[in-house]
Amino acid sequence: MADPATYRPAQGEIPTTPGVYRFRDEHSRVIYVGKAKNLRARLSSYFQDIAGLHQRTQTMVTTAASVEWTVVGTEVEALALEYSWIKEYDPRFNVKYRDDKSYPFLAVTMGESVPRAQVMRGAKRPGTRYYGPFAHAWAIRETLDLLLRVFPIRTCSAGVYKRAQQSGRPCLLGYIDKCSAPCVERITQEAHRALADDFCAFMAGDTGKFVRRLNDRMAMAAQNMEYELAARLRDDIRALERAMEKNAVVLQDATDADIFAMVGDELEAAVQVFHVRGGRIRGQRGWIVEKVEDVTDADLVEHLLQQVYGTADETSGGDVGAARDSGLVPREVLVPVLPAHPEQVAAWLTGLRGAKVDVRIPQRGDKRELAETVRKNAEHALALHRTRRAGDLTTRSQALRELQEALGLDTAPLRIECYDISTTQGTYQAASMVVFEDGLARKSEYRTFGVRGPDGDGARDDTAAMYEVITRRFKRYLSDLASSGDLVVETVSGEVGPETDDEKDARGRRFAYPPQLVVVDGGPPQVAAAAKALADLGIDDVALCGLAKRLEEVWVPDDPYPVILNRSSEGLYLLQRVRDEAHRFAISAHRKKRGKGMTVSVLDDVPGLGPARTTALLRHFGSLKRLRAATAEEIATVPGMGRKTAEAVVAALVLPEPEVAVAPFVAEPADR
Known about the structure:
By secondary structure, the chain is α+β, with helices and mostly antiparallel strands. Helices cover 42% and strands 17% of the residues.
């Protein structure tokens, strides 16, 4: 625990201009990011008498070892840079909004040469337009199935599309007129993109012009006595109307707005949003946030808007107005409390949308009533979350305190790493490393290890495998620490410029962050092996324990008796979750390795041909049969292939000559 006075910068060194600041811990890891209109005034507030700070702020400043800042031109630039750094560094003391579920979106990949409509979850991708979110994936598929009658755009995967190109025949959707089949040039790529643009415009809420266009065409067809065409157009109009009816009209003035509501207490809050486009609810979304920093409701709303709309610029691919066309940033953003800096937030959103965006509190009428409905949804979400105590901040803090007391640690084990070995009778040995920070799984830092053994054939048993894995992990830690120059940590604070290459490299050194506690799955033998590995490397500041499955006993090095935790204790429950997660991850890695080992290809033994080149060859030629028929010159044209490797591939694929059966020679008897 550091004294903030040891790294406090001199008052005159801090500028009074707008900027963004970062607090780093003793391992140079960013733990908090903030912005300020006046950097000197804001940073000085952190270095006042520590007793006068909020408890959460006290924890942050005593965990930090240095502070640095970057000066920007305007407060809007500070807002954008703060979001960028929070997303990049994922600081543990910043507020994080966690989705209460993984929402599916209807996505159109406008960044591809032939755009594709599909269901997508997870992180947003540049060049893709998103519509939703929807409550269920089947709702997207129903809507998409209706709209493909009028907008027959591509929905197939890249593999299906390429096979159709190679065979010259479209897939089933092309035969039933639910795809315009650009794969077989039934429509040009330019015409298909125009069709995708119309589809996106309809999904963004511009529905009236398409219905009017089809009505005019239907009337013209009927006037020309083309009754079959008129009937098809009538069915298309009904399909569009059914797709529009799936979203109830809630605002009669064709409003485009996102309506937010927030309900919470001192520790956590629930947030809900209704996405209204063209007066209809197009989607609903929710988050749960833990107040890990001292923030007001206005600050929470500002952080929320940063997270919700921060991806709009990335997914638009730099195309001005694309965020507006896709509906990611609406004309109105209705919030329960104005953000801490409403003018800057509105200017930032206006820049993303390419048109004016109003950020305000609804006061009366239909919008006020709808905001109350959203608030009731937030209340229900918070009540539901409180029944699931595994993610509760108080419970997790209690679990960490119990582990600190039971194991005799100086501080609470904020970072826990757990290791497990998985094998089948000594074959396909794999190990897992899972990471929990502040009692929550940090899946981005999970790692798997292939156990090699002294001869490259695997370890002799679980203890030898555990010794190898712990040794490799902490050798990497020492190597990264030495290369980053942090063996002696200097708490130098001050102004920083653009990020250097060294800082980018340091972000990639995931092993450079040591745990406070290492947990191994097993009893005394596994604990002894891990302790020997740490001792051989000279590491004596990392605590170690093992959790045995049979009686859930906690074993520590050089102790003949286990540590017994109460069966109902939160500390034991946390260890069990960490151990079970390591076991699950190790089994997954083992199965993957075993499945790969049981899949043999004739290309596996070709010198210089690894998995990436093998995949590139099969993707280029489509099948092993076509690859076998290719010449060395044709194979050498594949990116990444050289002449020598191409010749080796040809030699490996030569089929053996069939053996010709020869009848044994039998001498005929001589005539007598």
